[in-house]
UniProtKB/TrEMBL annotation:
Family matches, as NCBIfam families: MTHFS_bact (TIGR02727)
UniProt name for this protein: 5-formyltetrahydrofolate cyclo-ligase
Source organism: Magnetococcus marinus (strain ATCC BAA-1437 / JCM 17883 / MC-1)
Alphabetical keyword list: ATP-binding, Ligase, Magnesium, Metal-binding, Nucleotide-binding
Catalytic activity entry: (6S)-5-formyl-5,6,7,8-tetrahydrofolate + ATP = (6R)-5,10-methenyltetrahydrofolate + ADP + phosphate
Gene Ontology terms: biological process: folic acid-containing compound biosynthetic process; tetrahydrofolate interconversion
Binding of substrate, residues: 57
Family to which this protein belongs: Belongs to the 5-formyltetrahydrofolate cyclo-ligase family.
Length: 196
């Protein structure tokens, strides 16, 4: 069943994100990337999953060069046509991506895949988030289904601060985030995360 409140929030938040001034967007994107790179959570992670941005999502592309330099092992979502779960495929440096379902660029089918539970730091895109670590996506439930029962060590959302809402309806299947990084810095959710 579609949640009407989520549907309305999604519409408002996507309109807000789509209307961002390009110059502001670029500088906010760069600021968020800098916050992400400067935190110990990144330093400790060996296997990092990112995403190829679509539709005005905060773009993790500027992270690629620094992450290679740090020797990280990188993964990107790979969707098979008709699948209800995301696979995470190894990203090789300089690889030319293929277009997958929804037109999202992704690694080829021959790439080594990793179980989501073996990822140290998974960065996920957001339509919205709340102060309890709730995440709103496009409504496909792909991340929730993929991460049910096999969470990465750290699940971190990437978005703009204006994508925060007071409260998202929480469904049983929703997988809460450990933190969100925006242009204003890190927000940690849950007990003790703020001190890590
Ligand atoms: N950049 C990026 N990659 C990602 C995701 C994502 O949200 N962002 N995903 C996270 O799950 C997975 C793909 N999921 C997606 C789900 C829906 C739509 C989408 O555009 N949906 C249409 C409705 C399509 C329909 O209902 O048939 C829409 O919202 O207009 C895009 C990606 C894996 N890769
Ligand atoms: N673990 C699960 N098992 C079965 N169905 C699920 C599970 N998680 C989510 N779903 C289904 O996916 C649908 C969409 O979920 P939701 O609105 O939370 O998506 P979303 O988090 O916004 O999207 P996405 O994860 O694709 O970015 C729901 O109707 C739900 O039934």
């Amino acid at each position: 069943m579609r949640d009407e409140k989520k549907e309305a929030l999604r519409k408002t938040l996507l309109a807000w994100r789509g209307a961002l001034d390009p110059a502001w967007r670029a500088s906010a994107n760069a600021a968020a990337v800098a916050h992400l790179l400067s935190h110990a959570w990144l330093g400790q992670a060996e296997r990092v999953a990112l995403y190829c941005a679509i539709r005005g999502e905060l773009d993790p592309a500027p992270l690629l060069a620094p992450l290679w330099q740090m020797g990280k092992i990188l993964y990107l979502p790979r969707l098979e046509a008709g699948a209800s779960q995301i696979r995470f495929a190894r990203h090789q440096q300089g690889e030319v991506w293929q277009r997958g379902p929804f037109g999202i660029p992704q690694p080829g089918p021959d790439r080594a895949q990793i179980e989501p539970g073996a990822v140290d730091l998974m960065l996920v895109p957001l339509v919205g988030f709340d102060a309890q670590g709730g995440r709103l996506g496009y409504g496909g439930g792909f991340y929730d289904r993929t991460l049910a029962g096999q969470r990465p060590k750290l699940l971190v959302g990437l978005g703009f601060a204006g994508q925060q809402v007071e409260h998202l309806p929480r469904a049983d299947h929703d997988i809460p985030l450990d933190a969100v990084v925006t242009e204003t810095g890190w927000c940690f959710f849950g007990e003790g995360y703020g001190t890590r």
